[in-house]
Structures are given as C-alpha cells and as structure tokens.
Amino acid sequence: MTNGAQGHATQDTGTHQPWVITLGELDEKLGVRVHEQSAERVVASMPVAGNRQSLGRLHGGATLALAEAVGSWAAVIHASTMGKSAVGVDVSATHHKSVRDGQVTATATALSLGRTMTCHMVTVTDEDDRRLATVKITNYLLDTPVHNTAG
C-alpha cells in the first residue's frame, strides 16, 4: 500500500485490478489519516481538536464517522477483489467514554467477508489505548463496481 497525494491510498492486489480509495470530503474535514488498509484490517486516526462538541469533548458523530469510514474502506477493498462495490446497510455503536485532547484511532477487524456481505468490528481508542467506542458495521456488496469511493 502506498499513500498518495491528497488522501489517496492505493494497493496492487496482484491478479485483481488495483483498488484506489479516496478520502471523502467529511474524512478530510475531520482530519482522518489512514495508517493501514486491507480487507481484514483498516487502521486510521483523527485529531480530537476540531472535532469537539459544545462541552469540549470529542463529538460522538465524529467518532462514528471515523468508525464507519474504516469499516467501509475494508468492505470496498474486499468487494474490489470481485469487481463489486460496497454500501453500508447497518451501523451499531456503543460509546464507552470520550476525550478532550489528542488523537483517536479506529481499527476495523473483519468478522465476515462474504460474496454478498461483509461485517467489521471497529474499536475506537485514545492515545493510551483506552476504548472509547465499539462499532459493528455491515456492508452489502453490489455487482456494479463503483470506483474511487469509500468513507
């Protein structure tokens, strides 16, 4: 995997066409940075600064946007190996705690990578590796490929 300019990440999948995932407008506004990408595991982080709610804590919506992005990217990577695209059909989240400063990291781990659906568990942690949220994301795989979309 290589991180290209303007938030692009690319990977040559060998026998399959290379996939390209582009950060969406919301991901860029949140300050998301991708660290690792595969269908089985995606890791990304974002700053708390600029993503706080009125009480000065990390906004729950920002947390969910980060979590959904990593789960969706993993699904898109898996779908692309079959010439398909992925769309989210279910997101379920529990917020355990919040933070005021620093960076948060979301790690999506595959629970199921099927021909028609994927399911990923996402943990969002703070800089001290304390769990802030647990999110389960299910994506449906469409037969029509959509290029350069995720997040």
Task: Write up what this structure looks like.
With 151 residues, the chain is an alpha+beta fold. The chain has one domain (25-142): Thiol Ester Dehydrase, Chain A (Roll). It has two helices and nine strands, in the order βββαββαββββ. The chain has helices spanning 25-30, 60-80, and strands spanning 2-3, 8-11, 19-22, 33-37, 41-47, 85-95, 103-113, 117-125, 131-142. The strands form two sheets. A six-stranded antiparallel sheet has the order 4-5-7-8-9-6, with helices on one face. It has a three-stranded antiparallel sheet with strand order 1-2-3, with helices on one face. It is elongated, with a radius of gyration of 15 Å.
List SSEs in N-to-C order.
Answer: EEEHEEHEEEE
At CATH level 2, the architecture is: Roll
Q: Tally of extended strands? A: 9
Basic shape: elongated
Range of strand content: 35-45%
Helicity range: 10-25%
Taking strands numbered 1, 2, ... along the chain, how are they ordered across the largest sheet?
A: 4-5-7-8-9-6
What's the overall average pLDDT, rounded?
Answer: 87
Task: Let me know the CATH homologous superfamily.
Answer: Hotdog Thioesterase
Q: Determine the CATH topology.
A: Thiol Ester Dehydrase, Chain A
CATH class designation? Alpha Beta
What is the rounded Rg? 15 Å
Residue windows where pLDDT falls under 50 for at least 5 positions: 1-18
User: Tally the helices: what do you get?
Assistant: 2
Q: Report the structural category.
A: alpha+beta
